[in-house]
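Regression check, D-glutamic acid case 276:
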Amino acid sequence: MHTDGPDPALPIAVFDSGVGGLTVLHECLVSLPEEDYVYLGDDARFPYGARSAEDLSECVRRNTAFLLDRGAKLIVIACNSAAGAGIEPARELAAAGGVEVVAVIEPEAEIAAAITESGRVGVLATPATVAGGAYLRALGRQHRELTVTQVAAPDLAAIIQRGFPFSEAVVETVRSYCAPLKRARVDTVILGCTHYPLVRPMLQRFLGREVRLVTAGHAVAAGAQRILEAEGLESSNEKEGEYRFICTGDAAAFRELGTRFLQMPLGEVERVELAD
Ligand code: DGL
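Current build output:
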């Protein structure tokens, strides 16, 4: 019986700047179906990928504080731009209640280093993530000689968050982001923004079928599972748990887009104001 930590009946809380984190939530819903979930999309502040590191740290702190206040047994940072700015503000807040934090970036770096044959790894990410260098540091910790090519894709998350109107211009934009990765002859590309798996087929087509694309969802869900088991925090639900959604922007738009991406009904989306 767990005594000091959070109540195992509380939900797992996941956050992103918008709908991208649904690609991580999706894996959690599949891997840990008995758990309850609450998802926060801070879409009023989208795009995180254009924000400064200082601003992003504040987003991490604010979102974590809000979710802990609502009640959460685990915090999942499903946004690379936010996690890239550092997850310490979340860890500090969560530690007070014995709550652990799981985040993207490190898991993808581990997978990429394990599967690349040539050692040439690409990272496609938002400008904030590329500028912050979190993937370079994470890949540098992998005990392997790697050549890393980073490409910032300033418009890609926004294209996806808008519901991706697939015009020729969009296709050319995405192709131009893939070009430096092709030139660098990478055999593995980290999709370093949780929005990007939503356009995975297009990226795979432009990069070539032999290139391996690495996403965070599965590894993050596995990390969450390890923590819940180690801490005795698994849900006692006997069937599928519940999930609910909160956003800071347009709830109807979030619901419409989110339903398409998750391919499950989102139900009512609650709108909240998170004060700066
Ligand atoms: N999904 C977020 C990430 O993983 C980024 C999108 C944004 O720019 O807000 O980086």
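Comparison notes: The first strand starts at residue 12 and ends at 16. The mean pLDDT is 95. No diff flagged against the previous build.
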